[in-house]
Amino acid sequence: MITTPTREAPPSRRRRLRLLVRTTRTTRLAAAAAVVTLGVTLAGCASGATGASAEAAPPAPPQHQPGGHSLTQDDVDTWLDGAVGSALQTTGIPGATVSVVADGELLTARGYGMADTGTGDTPAAAVDPERTLFRVGSVSKVVSATAIMQLVEKGDLDLDADVQQYLDFDLDTPKGAVTLRHLLTHTAGFEEVISGLIGTPGSEKTLREAVSDAPPAQVYAPGTTPAYSNYGATLAGYVAQRVSGVPFDELVQQQVFDPAGMTSSSFAQPLPAELDARLAHGYPDDSKPAVPTEVVNAAPAGAMSATATDMARFMLAHLGDLPDEQALLQPATLDEMHRPALDADDLGTLVAGQRMDLAFFDDSTPGLAAFGHDGDTQVFHSAMRMFPGHDTGIFVGLNGSGRSATASLDLRTTVLDGFADRYLRDGSAAADGDDRGGAGTVDDATPASDAVASGTGADGSSDGPVAADLAGTYLSSRSPVTNPGALLALSGQTTVAARSDGTVAVTPKPLGVTTGVYEKVGTDLWREVGGDAVLATRTAGAEAGTDGDATVEAISWGASFTMLRAQPWQAASAVLPSLALAVVVLLASMVVWPATALAGAGRRRRDLRAGVSGSSPATAPRRRDRTLLLSRLGQASTLLALVGWAVVAVQALSFAEVSAVTLRVLQGLQLLGVVAIVPAVLVAWQAVRDRRGWAVVTGRVLVVVSLVALAGFAFGFRLIAPSVSF
């Protein structure tokens, strides 16, 4: 028998090859161990967090301040000096302005801190409530709505007609026709819009461009799902501009500001020179320089600038206290604007909670009727409340966000709630004879805690959902849905956990960063323990929830916001650990790539030396190498895309512009990762067929699973979608 001798590598080379193989295997084993360890850790953290939220001790309940004080200028001034003046230094907010009206007159107007800190090119200047203009953010919406309702009064607009008849572009409304009533109550069904909302000087758009260039998709049936919408308010303003034939800022100037005597107010961007010279600078906090003047392209939704005394004139107008020749609306129209605008035919059982008036939030609490609006730009923050039963109103504006995430919100809440408690309640929380009642008013003689413990509401009802029916993870209705902005839903989720006493723990509670505990006080209504904040529920089926055995699909709060139950694949507690595991697997694959490449090169050289003359032993290895290269290029592309999406998410949350080209490039990288699933499967199959060992096979199977998981993530959160406008 004739044999063909084989040439064996020298001993030194054999040792190097064995060492390389051992090193490669060790790296793979370490990567596999890291994946398992991270998975266990993340799973433990997730389950631990869930358990903690279910039975943690409830936080201290909200506290009302002592009431019964006389509503006089001296008392209000003294109280405001303490509540606002002393708070600026501790919060890091540079300046504030406040006005209070009562019994048809301006009771007081106060200015605190600095309109200009003097850290820029202009001298320092204190806040003057009569001269210093503040950006009022979304408080603009109720001023815009006032001009719109004037056109309704004249018969030029119909609140319940399809707005398409007033537009000069096609509005895509697959879920149903949109009316002005829907637009003014944030129930038109539009997804959230982030891009282009706030810009810098030079980025101004015309009002038509703002509403027609990239309209958001309609994702909810009109009237059914409160979802706060700057686009909706802007579209309503454009309707008014179209019908009146007057540019929107001029329309409001002619029909609202001039008649009401609001001589220091404007929607113009930029402001007229005389007003611009009096505009306060806006600051992140009092230790940082001012930011450039913000441009709000959704102008009817948030572009207004005004003084505190002008806002007092506006409050007097809505309280019906201006002289007839200055009145902005007829009494009947004012009444229509100040009462809930939707009923159960649209909202279903969500009607039990807070509802939108026409552009105003119904802020009533038990025993105290109220309506108003808050406003925020990036650095200006404001709030306005009116109390019709007391013919009283208060406005507060701030020109900085402060040093903590909730500094401006906390200060506004302290001022508005403290004012209502101190002057409009008698200490029993029900001093108001005009008891519009507020959402979910129940018989105060029935202890809510006793009713909750037995699974019934404080109204004695045993119908409707119980705590277990609310438990789960929820997404905000105010979110992008059809574009890459859907990724932001991972950062704003709410967890509801049933507690053993029949209450629910909501983390974070609306407008907070802590947990709130809510008890059942009605068939579909829950109130914060010790507080006035309420949640209303809606179950999935038309007849669901009557026996407490149906899962809740939606929870509304704050009149224009809804929490929608997340699908299992949308819950951050499931998505983020899975995402982290997949990323770790791909990173491990990238780390072992060089070692594997060297080992493969050595193996090919050895196979060549062992080959039979006339054969082509290198053909199959080359094919395998190309397939492996395609798989790993796809893995690298996926990782690059994920890094890019993370950067885009940060930019979007700070209202920084992201070009469509950038988003398309990221989508291209993400698609390469999807395509790479095919070569990754082939590589895994080759490893199984060639019996490469359990470590290699496991690693390559994990790569396939990771690429599939990340592809599902990309499609599920719309990173790969036709639209990149968010």
Strand order of the largest sheet: 12-13-14-15-16-17-18-19
* Number of E-state strands: 19
Q: Number of helix segments? A: 20
**Estimated helix fraction:** 40-55%
Number of domains: 3
Beta content: 5-15%
- The rough form would be described as globular
List the helices and strands and how they pair.
Blueprint: H1 11-55, H2 73-91, E1 95-102, E2 105-116, E3 125-126, E4 134-135, H3 140-154, H4 180-184, E5 198-199, H5 207-212, H6 230-244, H7 248-260, H8 273-276, E6 295-296, H9 299-302, E7 305-306, H10 308-318, H11 331-337, H12 344-347, E8 361-362, E9 371-376, E10 381-387, E11 392-398, H13 407-424, H14 448-453, H15 467-470, E12 472-476, E13 494-498, E14 504-507, E15 516-522, E16 525-528, E17 534-539, E18 552-557, E19 561-565, H16 572-610, H17 619-653, H18 660-675, H19 677-689, H20 694-716
Antiparallel strand pairs: 1-2, 1-11, 2-3, 4-7, 5-6, 8-9, 9-10, 10-11, 12-13, 12-19, 13-14, 14-15, 15-16, 16-17, 17-18, 18-19
Helix pairs in contact: 1-16, 1-20, 2-13, 3-6, 3-7, 16-17, 16-20, 17-18, 17-19, 18-20, 19-20
